Structures are given as structure tokens and as C-alpha cells.
Amino acid sequence: MPAPIRLRELIRTIRTARTQAEEREMIQKECAAIRSSFREEDNTYRCRNVAKLLYMHMLGYPAHFGQLECLKLIASQKFTDKRIGYLGAMLLLDERQDVHLLMTNCIKNDLNHSTQYVQGLALCTLGCMGSSEMCRDLAGEVEKLLKTSNSYLRKKAALCAVHVIRKVPELMEMFLPATKNLLNEKNHGVLHTSVVLLTEMCERSPDMLAHFRKLVPQLVRILKNLIMSGYSPEHDVSGISDPFLQVRILRLLRILGRNDDDSSEAMNDILAQVATNTETSKNVGNAILYETVLTIMDIKSESGLRVLAINILGRFLLNNDKNIRYVALTSLLKTVQTDHNAVQRHRSTIVDCLKDLDVSIKRRAMELSFALVNGNNVRGMMKELLYFLDSCEPEFKADCASGIFLAAEKYAPSKRWHIDTIMRVLTTAGSYVRDDAVPNLIQLITNSVEMHAYTVQRLYKAILGDYSQQPLVQVASWCIGEYGDLLVSGQCEEEEPIQVTEDEVLDILESVLISNMSASVTRGYALTAIMKLSTRFTCTVNRIKKVVSIYGSSIDVELQQRAVEYNALFKKYDHMRPALLERMPVMEKVTTNGPTEIVQTNGETETAVLETKPPHSGLQPGSQANDLLDLLGGNDITPVIPTAPTSKPASAGGELLDLLGDLNLTGSPVSAPAPQISQPPFLPDSSQPLFNDIAAGIPSITAYNKNGLKIDFSFERSNTNPSVTVITIQASNSTELDMTDFVFQAAVPKTFQLQLLSPSSSVIPAFNSGTITQVIKVLNPQKQQLRMRIKLTYNHKGSAMQDLAEVNNFPPQSWQ
Fold it and tell me: Coiled coil located at which positions (predicted)?
């Protein structure tokens, strides 16, 4: 058999291939020749064939059939064979394949070999792909080599020990005696790998961390020698002595000094020396300075040292390298909460980064700019951020607008400034603002009574001839509807009033209605505003009637419904119109604790659960949550906390509760206030029925009858959505005493959605002299048999009562 081609010739041949198919053909032909050679047990060219196979593996072609040949090369006595064999093992084998266990004995023999280079090959292979079983078997040999005087072997043994500790953490103590003298080594390679080993041990074991804290003075001394030492050709990189070792030592110091006063005190001086003596003209120096800054910020360092670190980051912001500027902005963003004043000194440089061409730098600069806003600089920072909002790319506008809204709400120096700022945002990036911006601004305007005339005049001028910014048009329409009389009367004191007639105001709103740029929601705002003006204007009521009647036949169902209802107000209930359309009262500010749970159903977004505040009862909230967990029983149940009456009307939109988020189904319930959702003011109150129900002739059932308490279910089906069943519960009390603090709770399987409306009362009168009614709405899109668990809680005869029941006897007409 002819001798196979050399690796160099194979590489040259493959590079001549002009197409992928031609290269694949060459590879397949060579692989076939290599397989034939392996089958013939050709020891002469095995090393050459495995080398070629590794090259093909690096090109992405399969080479698994060479695994056993690698083991044969490892078992060879020739160093050249072992070198290729171990390289092949590192590339072709890993711990997921049982073949690698066959080489354990070979590695053990080579670790005890008389030649240091063979021992080095074995250490490299074990440190690269050794499994936990191999590490356990060979840890003793590694520990022995870690104590040897040969620096070539010690540095490789230290890295191999790192791999052993990662695979088998319980073997960590075995290497503890060997680490005592590692830092006394003069060889930088041994020092470097020793620091890596100590870092790994400290990160994995608190006991090791406490043990190695006594090494801080020694590490400080090594670092100081590196800084103060003269030129050393073998360790010099761009004029800095061994920057790789410096960075590793700084990382280890950061771990050792974290949350420890004594260790932090011991390293303060050396960190200051590194920060002031390191050359910053080259990237190598910047890398060391960055690690120094991270260490200063992470340990309990002195305040002056922290200011020095932030000043270094400030200098990074002036660097021409984009990566260094990005790193500086990211680091300042992490430290701005703890060292706010020090970061404030670099505010102008940070704001300049908003003009950077790199989008990553621009985003980090925007986030940091918002973090720097406070009551003292809010005017200047908002000016810069508004300028940025005007010129930034579309992907920044939404986040920037949200940040300006939050900062303005928190630090606004005056209500006029607040309103002007938000109107500027709506004018500049109205199409990109979040959905809640419109109701929030409306609430702000409503509560600023003295600014009504000024605001409506500004908004009127803002939308003249430009309806492209939908949120701005919506707010303007709402304000014109509410305060149109102030606009016409010219009562504005903050700026020169404009002369506007009633017809001109209606012209604007009608233009919004017919504009192609107006969304359906915007048209709803405009039509409602026109309707409100019928009670604020005196000369144009007939024109308003005509406009409203025209939209009674609109193809937009929402607009049509409003127009029909408003027409009915004019015709049948004209005496109620002034009271119904009177000016909105001051709105209460609603705080939320997070996003509201929204459920997607058939492409439409619906609220998961509607809830109002339950009345006070003797049960604690925590016990109620635990009781509901008992009620659920399994993981396939969707719980619903019921609503109960309150002494005040429900707020617009009601309250939403993410039950699966607020109730920890694994055992410990979480109690949190229910967030409220904002709703456009022209929408009807959510306390009105959400469905148009019609009687369906479904028989009633008795769901519960015990201890004098009787619960009856009556059913209706919605004519707008056949999948919705409306259940009306009636609770009656046949005992001689009233039942108070009555709470009805329900849970259904996850395939259903359940909405529980407010009950009519929390007291069930005695002797069946009255009932409590409550409405449950169940969405059953899959038409499955309805099942429900209920829980009843009430006070009777001075004691708290509760009971559970399962309702499975729903009539088929209620769910089919």
C-alpha cells in the first residue's frame, strides 16, 4: 500500500477546491483511505492519519471513527505519537462518551513519567476533558505534581487542579496544603495559575475564602513588585509588566475584600497606586484600570478611593475607543445609586455620549442620564433629553418618552413645567409613547385646576392642522371637550389668550373625526368631546346634534354605539344631559405595584379577573390566602378571589389581580395590593354589565344547602358570545340570626376563564327575609363540562364559619 499523503499536501489540495462539493469529494476520498489504513493496523502512518483527521474535524467533517486510534497513539512510547494522540483525545472525546474512560490508566502512567513534557501532555488532557470519575481517580497524582519543584509542571498542575475542583468540589481540601507555597514562586506562569486556583477555591467555598484572606498582604506585595519593577522583556506588554497577572490578582483581591473591613483596608493603598501609576495611553493599561475600578467598587474602600475610581471611568468616556466608552457607561450605571454625587460631576460628558453614533453607547448614555436626574438638575437634563428624543432613532423613542414621563412626574418643579414637558413629548414622539400616557396626562391636567385654561389653549394650538400624533390628539380632544368654554372665553392668564369661536372648535373636532390618520379610539375621544360641548356651548347645539346623528350609521361599531347613545340623550333624556356631561371631578392618583395580568383569548386582550376591595372581616389576609390554597387542591385549577361591595363606587376600570402571580401555589401565599388599570375617561364605567345577556331557559340548581345557608345558581347565556355563561348566585339564610361578612370564593379548571363581580351585600338577613346576589361569568371556549369549587366564609352567632363544596351538577344547557 502506498504511503498516504502528508498533512501539508492535504491542506494544499483542499484549498484548491473551487466549490463545496469538490471539497467534500476530496474529504470523502481521503477519509476512505484513512479508514482502510486503520483497518490494516498500519502503525507506521497512524500518527499522520490522525493528524489529517483532526484537520478535517476542524473543518466540520465527522471524525469520530478516529477515537480509538487516538487511544492507541496515547499508549505508544514515542513522544510524537503521544502528542497527536492527546491532541486528538481533547478534540474528539468528551465525558459523554464512555471511550474516554479507557485512557484513564494511560494518563495515570504518563503523570508519573520520567519526562516532564509527557507529564505536561497528560495534565493538559486531564484539565481539558477529564470527567468527574477520571478526576477522582487522578486527583492524587495532580496534587503530587502541584508540590514538585519543576515550575513547568506546577503551572500545568495548578490549572488541572482548577478543572478537578470544578468537576468534584469535595476534593478541594486535598489541594489546600499544596497552595501554601504557590505564591512564593518567582515564575510568573506559576504565580498566574496559582492565583486562578485560589480564585476558584474562594468562589466555591466560604471556608476557603476565610482561610485565604490572610494572603491579602502577600498578594498586595506581589502586585506592588509588578508595578514598581523595571523593564522585563519576557513579561513586558506595551510597557506594562505582566498585565495578565495584575488583572488576575486584582480579581482575587476583589473576592477577598468583599464584605471584609480588614482585607479592604489592607488593599486600599495598593489600589490607589495602581490607579494613579498605570499608563492609560494603551489598551493594556485601560484593562488594568478597569479591573482596579471594579475592585474598588466591590470592596469596602474609602470614599476618596471610590471618587478616584469614578474619575477613571469619567476619563474612559473621553477615550476614542467605543468599547472603552461603553464599558465606562455600563460601570457608571451600576455605581450611580451608591455614589450619585461623584457620578454627577461627569454629567456633561455623559450627556455628550447621547450624540454618539454607536447605538449601544447611545442607549447606555440614555439610561445613565435618566439615573442622574434629580430635583436640582431636572430642567437642564430634561432639555437635553427632549433634544435627544427629537433626533434619536425610532427604537429609542418609546424608552426615552417613558423615562421623561417618570422623571417629570417625580421631580417636576411646577405643574405648568410638568404639563409643558409632557406635551412636548407627545408633540415630538406621540406615536411611540406607552398606552397609559394618555390617561396619566389627562389625570394630571384634571388635578391642575388652575392650569385648565392654559392647557386647553396650548393643546388647541398644538393640533391645528396636524393629527399625526394620536396620543396628543386624544388628550387635546378630551381637554377641549372638558374645558371648551374656557378656550372660547379666552380666560388664559399664563400666556396671551387667543380668540376662538365655538364653530372653530367644532371644526377642529370634526376634522379629527374625518381624518384618515385618526384611529378608532381617537375618533371616540373626538365624538365624546363634541357631545360634552353641547352643555358648554350655547350657540352650536343644533350643529352638535347633526354631527352626532350622522355617526349613528357609522361602519365603526364603537363610534356607532356612542352616537346612538348620545342621540338617545338628546331625544329621550335631554333633561339629564347637563348632569351626565358635567365637568369631571378631580381624580385620585392610583399607584400600581406592577403590570396587570392580561389574558390573550382569540386574538383579543381581556382582563383576567375583575376585583373590588373586599370588606373587612375577622380573617387575616394571610389566612385567607392559605384557605384558598386549600380550596385549590390541584394544579389544574384557576382560582379567583371574589369581589365584595364597598361603600364607594368602583373606580373606572376596576382593579385587576394576577391571582397566579399573587398566590404561591407551592405553599407560601404572597399578599399584595391589587393594581388598578387606567381607562380612557369617555368609556362607560366597568361596573355596568360587560355582556348583553338574554334569558336562555336554563334550569336553576342548588349548589349548596347546609347549616341554614342556601346557595342557588341561575343561568343565562350571552347573545354576543355563546362561549360565555352568566351565573347569578342567590344566597339565603333560614336561621334566626343574620350571617355577616359573607364572602363567596370560586375556582375553575385552567381551560376556563372566570370573572366574579361584586356582590349586592355582605350580610345575609335571617328568616329568608332577603338574599345576596352575585354574578359570575365563565368563558368556556372548548365547550367542556363545567366544574367549580366554591368556598364560603361568614360570621354567624359570633364565630367565624367556613365551608368547601364542589359543584358538578351544572345543567348541560349551561355549557354545551
Answer: none
Residue with cell 481517580: 137
Quote the strand ranges of 215-297, DSSP E. 236-237, 240-241
Provide the pLDDT for residue 71: 86
pLDDT higher than threshold 50 for residue 599? no
Q: What is the mean pLDDT of residues 372-378?
A: 90
User: 522 — phi, psi (to 5°)?
Assistant: -65, -40
By three-state DSSP, how is residue 637 classified?
strand
pLDDT reading at 157 higher than 90 = yes
Taking the C-alpha atoms of residue 642 and residue 789, their distance in angstroms, rounded to an integer, is 13
Region at 58 (left for phi over 0; alpha for psi -120 to 50; beta for the rest)? alpha
Q: Which residues pair with 712 in a beta bridge?
A: 702, 730
Distance from C-alpha of 653 to C-alpha of 687, rounded to nearest angstrom: 8
Assess contact for 502 and 539: CB atoms under 8 A: yes
For CA atoms 716, 720, 724, 727, the dihedral sign is negative
Task: Map grid coordinates 505508544 to a residue.
Answer: 76
* Whole-number average pLDDT of the chain: 81
C-beta neighbour count of 304 within 10 angstroms: 10
With vertex at residue 471, the alpha carbon angle to CA 681 and CA 546, rounded to the nearest 5 degrees, is: 60
Residues 339, 342, 348, 351: what is their CA dihedral angle, to the nearest 10 degrees?
A: -10
480 within 8 A of 474, measured Cβ to Cβ: no
Q: Which whole-number Å values give the CA distances from 335 to 253, 773, 808, in the listed order?
A: 19, 57, 59
Whole-angstrom Cα distance, residue 205 to residue 22? Answer: 55
Q: How far apart are CA 25 and CA 480, in angstroms?
A: 77
